Amino acid sequence: MQLRGVKNLVPAIATSDGAGVKLNRTIGGPELDSLDPFLLLDEFGSEDGADYIAGFPDRPHRGFETVTYMLDGLMRHADSTGAGGMLGPGAVQWMTAGRGIVHSEMPRQEDGLMRGFQLWVNLPASDKMCAPRYQNLKSEEIPEVDGGAGVEIRVIAGEAGGISGAVSGIAVEPLYLDILLPAETEHVQPVPGGHTALCYVFEGDVAVVDSDDNSAGDSVVEVPHHTLAVLGTGEAVRLRTGADGGRVLLIAGRPLGEPVVRYGPFVMNTREEIAQAIDDFRAGRF
Ligand code: FJE
Fold first, then answer.
1. pLDDT band for position 82 (50/70/90)?
2. How far is the CA of 18 from the centre of ligand 1 (A)?
3. Residue 285 maps to a domain
4. Rounded distance between C-alpha atoms, residue 41 and residue 33, angstroms
5. Domain housing 250
6. CATH of the domain at 38
7. From CA 150, how far away is CA 229, in angstroms rounded?
8. Which of 57, 76, 225, 231 has a Cα-to-Cα distance from 106 of 20 to 30 A?
9. pLDDT in tens, 111-168
10. Alpha helices of the chain — where are they, by DSSP H?
11. pTM for the complete prediction?
């Protein structure tokens, strides 16, 4: 089994989006425009309401999926179909925007810790105009796998330890794991070969080790927190922690290899389709 090494490290860039929410961006910024099939990865996290209170008011989407994973705090989401609900700590919302939806995510608290992630996942050309749909998962609905040696894995999508994730039926066959590693631990996690894969470290520090323990010349790449590691080819990744332990998102997906034409919240394959999206949105067809 080939272990995946680190192709490159992308430190998060502090930015703001929505109506002025402070974010740490790794995919979708100047350093890494996209990582097929992923279009954006943002981490939000603050104890200060001023950093998030403005939220993400109504904005349109077409041609991709947004995945919101809450760690702490409460957000209310609502959309143009009349659907809505609360996202609490540990919850996941996998929204397939398809042909178009207008969606908002607003904090339900004025202060205190709010923390989570948003990932944008591209849709293949054949699915871009599908009907919008959601998979909303409460924290209790997300399976947790004991990885041994104190390693805890929340299986949001894909498979770990023989357990299938909470979210299913997604075009790029994603793996989305939240892996907690105690101090001084090693853990090998299978990742589908051929998928684009990344690790995002959001607590502590984690190293990616890309050869077997007993061979000389192990390559060890330290991934500090708030840093994304783009992984090389292979069927698994070996994670190692030091004295502080760590927590990472391990995300993978089948690359689409299709042309991407992006205009803000519209992600299509051609310029004509973007013009159509703008037209449809202006005419109230979302
Ligand atoms: C969006 C601007 C946006 N990062 N992190 C334009 F900010 C967004 C958007 C988000 C977002 C939402 C959450 Cl809950 C967390 C985020 C960007 O929703 F979709 C458009 N179109």
1. confident
2. 5
3. no
4. 10
5. 6-268
6. 2.60.120.10
7. 23
8. 225
9. 999 999 999 999 999 999 999 999 999 999 999 999 999 999 999 999 999 999 999 9
10. 271-282
11. 0.96
